[in-house]
Amino acid sequence: xxxxxxxxxxxxxxERLPDAxxxxxxxxxxxxxxxxxxxxxxxxxxxLLEDGVDASGVPACTVVDTGAALDPxxxxxxxxxxxxxxxxxxxxxxxxxxxGLAAWLERExxxxxxxxxxxxxxxxxxxxxxxxxxxxxLIELCRRHGLDERQLAxxxxxxxxxxxxxxxxxxxxxxxxxxxxxxxxxxxxxVIVGYGHAPEHASLYCERLQVLISGDMMLPxxxxxxxxxxxxxxxxxxxxxxxxxxxxxALPAETLVxxxxxxxxxGLHQRIAELQAHHRDRCxxxxxxxxxxxxxxxxxxxxxxxxxxxxHQLVFAMGEAIAHLNYLHQSGVLARELDIDxxxxxxxx
Length: 349
Ligand SMILES: [Zn+2]
What we know:
Layout: E1 24-27, E2 30-36, E3 43-53, E4 59-64, H1 71-81, E5 85-90, H2 96-99, H3 102-109, E6 113-116, H4 117-128, H5 135-144, H6 149-156, H7 161-165, E7 174-176, E8 181-184, E9 187-194, E10 201-206, E11 211-215, H8 237-247, E12 256-259, E13 265-266, H9 268-289, H10 296-304, H11 311-330, E14 334-339, E15 342-347
Parallel strand pairs: 4-5, 5-6, 6-7, 11-12
Antiparallel strand pairs: 1-2, 2-3, 3-4, 8-9, 9-10, 10-11, 12-13, 14-15
Helix pairs in contact: 5-6, 6-11, 10-11
Bound molecules: zinc ion (ZN).
């Protein structure tokens, strides 16, 4: 008989969700806040960490992530700020649901922004849409990967959606470094930089509490979006993501994971194995479909088992399809051909 290594299944210690505008304790000094989002993914989690007292002796806190720059989030924040003094904002990465309200919060509370350099500058570049960070370049990338004119027109109609939902970003920030330890209240949190979802995503790990604030690098239930973007068309974010999640195996199996979406969970090693299997499986499916040459656009129904019409979803789907194709191409198992300005991928011999 062969015994497979014992891995703990995922468990969710908190069944109840925090009420809007309230903080719910999940570990000593660590509180869970849930903010609404107007997307299919309808919420984002923030973490309020108790952080000593301010200059006038009032208990203060550091928040990890800020929520989207939308009125329901501001309303919830106003309720929180009635009972919490905000001292510092740490933002895991530049995506709108994480960075969106940082400038507003800085104005309301004076709390400075702490962020990695790669995330801060990416946010600024996406907001301004300079160089290949703009919408035109995204449309060109998708044209080259086989989307038709109707689908491209749908994408163009969205405009610079990043600037719409992140209208402003704090003018200054304190740079966070990979491996740095940040003292928050009585606890030390180590910055773990991860790649593949965003350029320099910061997760935070507290050894004493065995708590990982994973951001979007480790989610239960859904797999993290791993996308090629137009400023780095030949990037291999899937290889980076797989390397980054494997590095989380160094943390204890019983770590309490606090993800940006979904509920806090235990079963980190099991979740890593599930995500590795998920991407392996998607790669196999793509390899099978590329027995005859295919574009990324043609492979979307294969990868997602459905057609994707909504332009917002299509951006994510194309990014994810190209990420898997670049990974397989750069591993040498898929060949890539340029056929009148459109890339096609086929199984290499
Ligand atoms: Zn994200």
